[in-house]
TrEMBL record:
Lineage: Eukaryota, Viridiplantae, Streptophyta, Embryophyta, Tracheophyta
Biased composition (Basic and acidic residues): 8-21
Designated name of the protein: Uncharacterized protein
Any one Gene Ontology BP term: N-acetylglucosamine metabolic process
Membrane-spanning parts: 33-52
Stretches for region Disordered: 1-21
Database matches in InterPro entries: Glyco_trans_17
One Gene Ontology cellular component: membrane
Length: 380
């Protein structure tokens, strides 16, 4: 058939299969040969190179194909203004009436070496917490011996001393074991320590990592209102390296429990569908010294992400902090291509220090490295 016949047939009949049937054979062949050559000489070697060098990236980029997101949370709107009385705040959340005496609050954390974060946390929560419970081990989750850093710095925390229950636990030091096993073991010990600290039914227990700091007014709201949910996750703003880089709003692991003997267990995983919006700050890798970054990268549960030893170079780490880039050269861990692409590349600086923990701003000189414009870390 000729081209003229083809356009005539197209006018008569618009099927795609017609177009294929009428394409001259030499065009099919030419197209195929070029494509085959490009695939063999360019695409395949490039693919092999990229997967070899950035295997994790390839798997994370394809994550939407092999993994599905967790069930979405039921988001609870959060109302707050310092001028509003507690009765109004409780009512806005549908939680009233306000209690005559607030619930007692227990704040329970596993400690590694985050002395500054612990200071900011405890100063923020101090007016609302009845009992501070802290457990530390002489082992990291990856079975590396570590000093008892809290014991060495305990004098700095005199302001909570009368309300402190401090416990230590010996590491199991099983080399080669999955770090999550040691982590679970330490969290179980923390569960016992809360009971030793005297927790009773109807007390509130905050379960979160040291760097997941609920805002004071959030805890105050939860301790004053009757009828709050028995278990509630806290949505925290996610920061990276300092409060200068707001990464996203998706931190959810922190939770608050109305304690029930025999039911409530310490944990750092999904407990319920309820998530109270905008309830504080989660600052990941917010360390004063580069050596703290190296320790954390080697010591905690995702050591598999340190794929190349140059990841631990001090100049590289300093450069990444200032750019808000990724320490492990990884893609965002998201479940849709839109989210992965949206979060690719460095986190831009927010230039904002509005609505941060009060103690941090009151002591801005001491904590300069956590505030905008101060990404260069001090030498030790
Ligand atoms: C860790 O602590 C336990 C219990 O106190 C102790 O028996 C053990 O020797 C310690 N190990 C190291 C490496 O410090």
């Amino acid at each position: 058939m000729t081209d003229g016949d083809y356009s005539a047939s197209k006018k008569r009949d618009d099927h795609v299969s017609d177009q294929q049937r009428h394409t001259p054979p030499h065009l099919i062949l030419g197209f195929d040969l070029r494509t085959v050559a490009v695939i063999c000489l360019v695409v395949v070697p490039a693919f092999v190179y990229v997967v070899g060098r950035h295997g994790d990236k390839a798997t994370f980029f394809l994550r939407p194909l092999w993994d599905s997101p967790q069930k979405p949370f039921n988001r609870i709107p959060h109302y707050y203004h310092p001028a509003l009385p507690m009765a109004t705040l409780c009512r806005l959340h549908g939680w009233g009436p306000t209690r005559d005496i607030p619930r007692r609050v227990f704040d329970a954390v596993l400690f590694s070496n985050e002395v500054d974060m612990l200071t900011i946390r405890w100063r923020e929560l101090q007016p609302y917490v009845s009992r501070f419970v802290l457990l530390e081990s002489n082992s990291t989750f990856t079975a590396i011996p570590k000093p008892l850093n809290f014991a060495a710095n305990r004098a700095k925390f005199g302001f909570v001393e009368p309300r402190l229950t401090y416990g230590t636990i010996g590491g199991r030091f099983r080399a080669g074991e999955n770090p999550f096993v040691e982590e679970a073991y330490q969290r179980l010990a923390l569960d016992q320590l809360i009971r030793i600290a005297g927790v009773e039914d109807d007390d509130l227990v905050i379960m979160s990592d040291v760097d997941e700091i609920p805002s004071g007014h959030t805890v105050d709201l939860l301790r004053w209102c009757n009828g709050t949910p028995p278990v509630l996750h806290l949505q925290l703003r996610n920061y990276l390296y300092s409060y200068e880089f707001l990464y996203d709003y998706d931190s959810w692991r922190a939770s608050v429990h109305v304690y029930r003997r025999g039911e409530t267990k310490y944990g750092h995983f999904r407990r319920t569908d309820l998530l109270l919006t905008d309830s504080g700050w989660h600052c990941s890798f917010c360390f004063r010294h580069i050596s703290d970054f190296v320790f954390k990268m080697k010591a905690y549960s995702h050591t598999d992400r340190v794929r190349f030893s140059h990841f631990l170079d001090r100049e590289r780490i300093q450069d990444i902090i200032c750019r808000g880039a990724n320490l492990y050269d990884m893609l965002p861990e998201e479940y849709t291509f839109r989210e992965i692409i949206g979060k690719m590349g460095p986190t831009p600086s927010s230039y904002s220090a509005v609505h941060l923990p009060a103690y941090l701003l009151e002591n801005a000189d001491e904590f300069r490295y956590l505030l905008p414009g101060n990404c260069i870390r001090e030498s030790e």
